[in-house]
Structure formats: structure tokens, C-alpha cells
Design a protein that fits this description.
Elements: H1 6-13, H2 15-24, E1 33-36, H3 42-51, E2 56-60, H4 63-75, E3 81-85, E4 98-104, H5 113-123, E5 124-135, H6 142-150, H7 170-179, E6 182-195, H8 200-208, H9 211-218, H10 222-238, E7 240-241, E8 244-258
Parallel strand pairs: 1-2, 1-4, 2-3, 4-5
Antiparallel strand pairs: 5-8, 6-8, 7-8
């Protein structure tokens, strides 16, 4: 069996979280679905099977992710999916087209989240559903704190549109969504591990490939970077369990409806 590609590692990482999102979809036969930040299309393909003969539009800003999504979709023989290389927060969708909008950790990176969520709301029919998974606050997520500590300290403050924890404050996010045109906003606490597979070397390579990790290592001398990588390997080894390399995390499963 071949090793997973770097893009496939994201699906491995979020395996435990994915089950919560799947249970919350509420997709019906014939629904039109928008998948925001669809990545390699796992959520898109699942939605397409549930919605058929309805259609799913998967949107992402990564051409590499979408290339893999199209490969997997073709392999599975699904013909009711369209993939768009676009920013879902700014793309001009047909107004009122979709019955459900879903996203698995794909909505935290909007530069202007108020405008972006208003754009998504405009693409939904009245009373259509929004179902999201987002990270809770950085300080509530062991995986990012432990990795940062192994690298030698707290990461630098991310620029706007690059913070994976930007929607972690439930009150602020509820206000944001309500201001964008959503109602009945609900938050479910999800505590599941992030999973990095059973191959320690592959897990280390994946985490070293993160933008924050590579930037942190680049700021160190060669010797300091080598010691940081050793600490990171030791951290992952210490969290190697029967499920593979696993670190604790907290996320929000958010559901809402577009106002009528």
C-alpha cells in the first residue's frame, strides 16, 4: 500500500472530527450543496452521494487540493460535482441556489469574514442550513500548543486571513454569523484527537511542511533547528497510541439557518 500524499494527510488528520460533521449534514435527496474550502473533496463526495440527483459545488483556493479532488471524484464515478478554484467569500454564486452549505475547517481564513459569510448566506435559499467545523481557541488546542513548545515557543501572530483559530470565540462567531444573515446559531463542543497516522517519519514530515512550522524552523540556527526537530519527533513518539500519532484538540460544530 502506498504512503498517503501530503494533501491526503489532511483527511487522515481530521478522521475523528469528520464523523461529527457527517452526522450533522442533514442532506436530503435532490438538495443543492455548497462545500466551502472543500480541499481534496472528501466532504464534497459524501455530500454528492447523499444529495443525488442533486448537485454539489466544492470551492477551494488550492489548485493542488482540487486536482486531487477531481482525481478521486473521477475514480469514484461521481458525476454530480463541480469544483471551483475560487474564494467562496467573494465568488458570485447564483443567489438563493443552495439548500445546505457545509465546511470542514474551511471558513477560518477569510480576510473579511463578515463580508464572506454574507456572501455565503446570499447563495443560500431562505431557511437553508449552514453546518461548519472550526477550531476552538488556540489555547484550548493541545496539538498546536505542544507543537509550538517543541519548536521553542509561541508562534508569531498570524496575519489577517491566516489564523486557523479566528472563529474559536463562540460569542464573537455567533454575532458574526447573525450579522451576516444567519439565525438559530448553535455550537456543539467536539473533543477529538488530530491523527497523524502510524508512520512517525511521515507524521513528522507532514507537520514540518506546515507554513508555521517551516517558518519557525527557518528563524533558528541550523543547530537549534535540528534540536527543535528532535523535540518534535519526541513529542510525536510520546503521543503514539493504538490509533497512531494522536494529539488532543477542541473544535466547534456550528449549525445555523439563513434568515427567511
Amino acid at each position: 500500500m502506498s504512503a498517503p500524499t501530503t494533501v491526503d494527510f489532511y483527511d487522515i488528520e481530521l478522521t475523528a472530527h469528520h464523523e461529527h460533521l457527517r452526522a450533522a449534514y442533514g442532506i436530503s435527496t435532490g438538495d443543492e450543496i455548497l462545500d466551502v474550502g472543500c480541499g481534496t473533496g472528501l466532504t464534497t463526495r459524501e455530500a454528492a452521494r447523499a444529495a443525488a440527483p442533486g448537485h454539489v459545488v466544492g470551492v477551494d483556493v488550492s489548485d493542488r487540493m482540487l486536482e486531487r479532488a477531481r482525481q478521486l471524484t473521477a475514480t469514484e464515478g461521481l458525476g454530480n460535482i463541480q469544483y471551483l478554484l475560487a474564494d467562496a467569500g467573494a465568488h458570485r454564486f447564483d443567489p438563493g441556489r443552495f439548500d445546505v452549505a457545509i465546511s470542514r475547517f474551511g471558513t477560518m481564513f477569510f480576510t473579511d469574514p463578515a463580508t464572506a459569510f454574507a456572501n455565503i448566506a446570499a447563495a443560500l435559499r431562505p431557511a437553508a442550513r449552514l453546518v461548519l467545523l472550526v477550531w476552538q481557541r488556540r489555547e484550548d488546542n493541545e496539538w498546536v500548543r505542544a507543537i509550538a513548545a517543541a519548536l521553542g515557543g509561541a508562534p508569531e501572530q498570524p496575519p489577517p486571513g491566516a489564523d486557523p483559530f479566528s472563529l474559536g470565540d463562540a460569542d464573537a462567531t455567533a454575532n458574526l454569523l447573525e450579522g451576516a444573515g444567519f439565525a438559530d446559531v448553535r455550537f456543539e463542543n467536539v473533543r477529538e484527537p488530530v491523527l497523524y497516522g502510524r508512520d512517525l517519519d511521515a507524521a513528522l514530515a507532514f507537520i514540518r511542511g506546515w507554513q508555521d512550522t517551516s517558518a519557525a524552523l527557518a528563524r533558528l540556527s541550523e543547530a537549534e533547528a535540528a534540536r527543535a526537530v528532535d523535540r518534535l519527533r519526541a513529542l510525536l513518539a510520546a503521543h503514539d497510541s493504538e490509533r497512531g500519532v494522536a494529539l488532543d484538540s477542541r473544535s466547534w460544530l456550528i449549525s445555523a439557518r439563513r434568515r427567511r
